[in-house]
Amino acid sequence: SPPSNSTWDYIIVGAGAAGIPLADGLSESGKSVLLLERGFASSHRWGGQLRPSWLDGSNLTRFDVPGLYGYIWTNNTENSGILCSDYEATAGCVLGGGTAVNAGLWWKPPHDDWDLVFPPGWHSADMAPYVEKAFRRIPWTDTPSTDGKRYFQNAATKVTNVLTTAGYTALSANDHPNAKSSVVSNSEYLFLHGERGGIMATYLVSAAERKNFQLQMNTTVARLVRKGDTVTGVEVEASGVGGYSGTIAVTPNTGRVILSAGVFGTAKILFRSGIGPKDQLEIVKASPEGPNMIDEKDWIDLPVGYNLDDNPNAFLVALDPTIEAYDYIGAYNTPIAADAAEYLANRSGPLAQVEGPINPIFWDTVTGGDNITREVQWSVNSGALSNTTAIAFTASLGRGKTARGRLTITPNLTINVSTLPYFNDPGAHDATAFTAAIAKVLPLLQQLPNATLYQPAPGVSAADFVKSLTIDISMSASHWVGSTKMGPGGAGGEGWVVDTETRVRGVRGLHVVDAGIVNGVPTSNPQSVFVVVAQRAAVEILKLG
Ligand SMILES: Cc1cc2nc3c(=O)[nH]c(=O)nc-3n(C[C@H](O)[C@H](O)[C@H](O)COP(=O)(O)OP(=O)(O)OC[C@H]3O[C@@H](n4cnc5c(N)ncnc54)[C@H](O)[C@@H]3O)c2cc1C
């Protein structure tokens, strides 16, 4: 039935890494929950249809097949409407959000990700039960193909040999989550039974079994409906077939709206609803939709968009003609027939794993001149490059980095990254630490048998290489966090947007639960942190009644 037929105890905006587990947790209580998603169904399980013809007749879409992951990075018409077109940065705007389009890397967060990034109350001892639950519901695998084999591993084997000879410890990262210094692991994924799986195959399934839960796709929340400081509902626009337009209300006095629209989506809704820095609200006011905006006397000044964080990436490349290569991009429309058949029949073979292949992953800890320890995660992938083959090492500066950026809105309501969170920290300690990490690994590339250094060029030092990097959004790891900072709760302390119960400061009946409330990038690819945070947030929100 149309979502406006009833009022809702909880309206969750955005069915991504955080919104889906949150919907499951809240609906478990028996309270009514509406989950609104701007995009269309991605996974076949939810009615998804988008797929190349070789998947016709199967219960799979492009989103379900790990081997089709890499295609999202190509400039092809099949990709239109999947990534959010109104953000400068890359994000998924379909059911599942980032989890529908991402590489599926799934890491148990080390204790420091909670203890050093989150306020008290959200530290590792508090979060342990939620971490356990997330990894019970979505187990990890380092062999996504159901035959238990990893394909095209000759680069991974060479790299792991060089690393272990140089003193790195080989282990399973998810069996030893706190070991994040000089360690190397196979890539660990959330793929299930050779398919993407993840939150759409677990948390959304259990939520959808409950009568008090409803999912409404193809429906974009334009803005909140509020009277003064109290949110009473949302205003929505149909954004696809079967979408809904109108106003949807929460249960009077007790209902809550929870924004889980991702870093960019949540900020956009807040700005359009008169919540944020004055300069941003004035841009919305001056835009064509200005007349629909809440009166200026009801604007609420909060630092939405500041404290933006993300990992900057840098790429080291060694050429090696002996490396295996597989055409994952060509496989989108015209896979090797035997590989397609093997995948369709058994969910095994090359198409059950993501392109690269991405393997191994390794971590180093480096301390900057400011005595702050920073994590660097290295991801190795390999395959064709021009008319030869190569091994690429992606260095990603992670937890501990201190640079921060800002997102802002434009007059046509696009969300931009106006200040990049890369290497702008006073004292340049991020760059010094990143340089030290690269200086350690660069000589190891030269020890790879048959390899010749390609990037940086031979003879270029790590310091000169880091200095030569172009600081722009192409450095992004697509791991944006922090733009609706979680504060200490209680009195005092400027610069935060939500309290430790995820309530938006100074607004009644409004929460944010998504990557935006994670105050800085964690150690590794972050989606597990958001799933864990959402489970915890559900408990906090239910306690509020
Ligand atoms: C290409 C790519 C690869 C990645 N690879 C990995 C990886 O391998 N491992 C990992 O851990 N992380 C990875 N990430 C990062 C991870 O996917 C994201 O950080 C994570 O999904 C963010 O979670 P979220 O809940 O904050 O937002 P999202 O997952 O982005 O969910 C937000 C949802 O809200 C919806 N929405 C937005 N605005 C509105 C609105 N106004 N009304 C209604 N709905 C709205 C969106 O459509 C979306 O479904 C990757 C990201 C990308 C883009």
Give an overview of the whole structure.
It is a single chain. With 545 residues, this protein is an alpha/beta fold. The protein folds into two domains: 3-38 and 66-106 and 198-305 and 481-544, 3-Layer(bba) Sandwich (FAD/NAD(P)-binding domain), CATH 3.50.50.60; 146-193 and 309-475, Cholesterol Oxidase, domain 2. Helix content is 23%, strand content 18%. The chain has 13 helices and 17 strands. It has helices at 19-27, 98-101, 111-115, 124-137, 154-165, 203-208, 262-272, 278-286, 330-333, 337-346, 429-446, 462-468, 527-544, and strands at residues 10-13, 33-36, 169-170, 183-185, 213-216, 219-227, 230-238, 246-249, 256-259, 313-319, 358-367, 373-385, 388-397, 406-409, 415-419, 452-455, 510-512. Strands 3-4-11-12-13-10-16 form a seven-stranded mixed beta sheet, covered by helices on one side. It has a five-stranded parallel beta sheet with strand order 5-2-1-9-17. A hairpin with a 5-residue loop joins β11 and β12 (373-385). α1 (19-27) runs parallel beside α13 and α4 packs across α13. The structure holds flavin-adenine dinucleotide. Flavin-adenine dinucleotide binds next to α2, β6, α7 and α13. Residues 92-115 form the Glucose-methanol-choline oxidoreductase N-terminal domain. Belongs to the GMC oxidoreductase family. Keywords: FAD, Flavoprotein, Signal. GO terms for molecular function: flavin adenine dinucleotide binding; oxidoreductase activity, acting on CH-OH group of donors. It comes from Glonium stellatum.
